[in-house]
Write a structure and sequence with these properties.
Blueprint lengths: L7 E6 L2 E6 L12 H14 L5 E6 L14 H4 L5 H23 L4 E5 L2 E3 L1 H7 L3 E5 L3 E3 L13 H9 L1 H10 L2 E3 H6 L5 E3 L2 H16 L3 H14 L4 H16 L2 H11 L10
Parallel strand pairs: 2-3, 3-4, 4-6, 5-7, 6-9
Antiparallel strand pairs: 1-2, 7-8
Amino acid sequence: MAGSYTVIAFEKKGRVAEVFLNRPEKSNAMNPEFWPQIRDAFEKIGQDPEIRVAILAGNGKHFSAGLDLVASASIFKGGEGFAEMDSMFHVVLEMQESATVIEECKKPVIAAVHGACIGGGLDLIAACDIRLASRDARFSLREARIGMIADLGSLNRLPAIIGQGHTRELAFTGKDIDAERALRIGLINDIYPDRESCLAAARALAEEIAAAAPLAVQGAKETLNYCRNKSVRDGLEYVAARNCLALKSADVAESVMAFMQKRKPEFKGK
């Protein structure tokens, strides 16, 4: 599908993949074509052994205005019988999977957010590992203002990121928060003056991550994801078993050799 992307742009730059929401004329609102395309891109990123980290950003003035209600109107039309409701239910499940594939991607994903990040946009970045933002960024779980419940992942992922109180305030009010508050509550890691500097910071951070041992980085992400809903004891047992695999990697041997030779290690992901 890579050659037929119409609403996202995908570029591989060495060890870093960059994925841009690419409907700038519509503020990157998410139409029905968006969901399979973003899912396909991140499935490819996860499977490509040369890619070590990904950046998710938006072209134009905004990261994303959220769901394109006009283009997606067909999802909400139809009768109220079982077949129609069941069909809508499975459409929503497929849309959810397009965010989950980011969360479950083996490679770390950095979101670089500017302008509006509303509704589905917030769902997407909640599934990312690290979030950076420009000073003009604003964030909103807007669904409460239009009679909907945010059902693409924010209600499930944000409590672990910003806590229950902040999540409930956003979900119940549909209010906007600015980058300063987003930083205060832990939604984003840092603020930059504008889109360009935010994207530059994301690229620099991506290169820093890419320089680390890829199997160790991917193992850390897998462990963090696994441990979120487990007891500390269960998590400790899992990471002990997981790290036993890492200790047998060629990258560990390379790290030891590089230390002895007083040089930077060259990790191969083996």
